Description:
The chain has three domains: 8-201, NAD(P)-binding Rossmann-like Domain (Rossmann fold, 3-Layer(aba) Sandwich); 205-459, N-(1-d-carboxylethyl)-l-norvaline Dehydrogenase, domain 2, CATH 1.10.1040.10; 466-506, Single alpha-helices involved in coiled-coils or other helix-helix interfaces (Up-down Bundle). Helices cover 52% and strands 9% of the residues. It contains 19 helices and twelve strands. The model has no long low-confidence stretch (mean pLDDT 93).
Amino acid sequence: MSDSLCNIGFIGLGVMGKNLTLNLADHGFKIACFDLDSSKIDDLIATDKYENPQGESRIVGCYSYTELLQKLTAPHLIILSVPAGEPVDHVCHHLIDAGIEADDIVIDTGNSLWTDSVEREKKYKGKFIFFSTAVSGGEVGARFGPSLMPSGDPYAWTRIEPVFTAIAAKVDPETGKPMESHVPGQPIQGGEPCATYIGPIGAGHYVKMVHNGIEYADMQLICEAYDLMKTGLGMTSLEIAEIFREWNKGILNSYLMEISAEVLSKIDDETGQPLVELIMDKAGQKGTGLWTAVSALQVGAPTQTITQAVFARSLSSLKAERTQAASVLTGPEPARLSNDAKSAAIEALRDALYCSKICSYAQGFQLMAMAAKEHGWKLEFAEIAKIWRAGCIIRAVFLQSITNAYERDDDLANLLLDPFFAEQLINLQGHWRKTIADATLMGIPCAAMSSALNYFDSYRRETLPANLLQGQRDYFGAHTYERVDCTPGKKYHTEWNMTGQPQIKIKR
Length: 508
């Protein structure tokens, strides 16, 4: 092993950390690594030797924070891949004790809440530069090219950018499609990197949070399509898998659609049944969907499809109650359809899924726009859509259309107002409405898909019944209202009197 110093320090060698380290090594960086579990250090070094048997060791094991700093060139660049919350601060405090300096950079790549990153930048100012980078793509993405959402000190980004653009997923600039190479030691040459500076500290993790909220919605929508075919059309898991594979060749092409077909196709070795039918229908969650829903409520963004996806997971967890309810509460029995009717229903379902997907992304981007305004960020939505085209969980051909929309109009208020997406929704809404109507009549829940249609119908209405709501609020709480026939912004309050004519007064 060479005695030369390393370019990058890496702390935290779990699944994501190990694969990010190997990715860095593939791109020519020499890494000094540390983990509280020394067996993970040894395992990583052994993996590196196995993947790179003829070459010089690219990864140096360190068994203390002090040793890690000693093995690095100055100023130090250290990447953390540790669980969100207290573990991040634990590492930061130990680095301070080990002698980290003010111009060293520490990058948090964990799944941190964005507000925690804001507080950490303040907390560690003067001790070192705290920088946050959200990572999407799971184990494979980390190893061969993730989508990266960095945010923090602009000076720090000038030092980090060459590293992250090297290891990020790449997209063919001509087609907008991912460029993939799942061969260790053979990084992708050329292409547009799925890494771009998002903005001030925390902005990157906020964007990743919304990414995960959209992911929740996308997954739930696919699950509802599966349920409609299984329960409503009487199709087998293998038949549905084939439909998903066919859909994946067109406008619904995405990583989530691809893996859904694979999950549905998997046969259990012991029983010979489709494995999906043996998996308990209780969905877990790590909190990022919840964070998205909470943030949407805080800024007043209507993300009902994302929020319904969170609720769907919560409802699924009530397995015992649902089992009891199934023996007490009855609903309609789905009618069996002819082959021709079934084919028509599948075609309509495809369009309903696509329209719902458009609305869930529109809600996510609208939330980011409202949050950016509140926090003073300048988010480049075309660039955000670009870095989601590869490497991340919601990567899809669909994202190129979103990129195009924001490149046509970087002040676009909502994706639904883009001419391309408006035309898609107008032309396909008949199938969307029929699918949801049929599901309702059959008693098959499709909360996310229904909420997406309600979002579309509410957004396209010039007049909503909120006028009555404002009257109610003024009646019981004197909350005031505006009038359509008077100057905008002027507030009115009525002394409501059920026995006589109300008296209108201007509240100044």
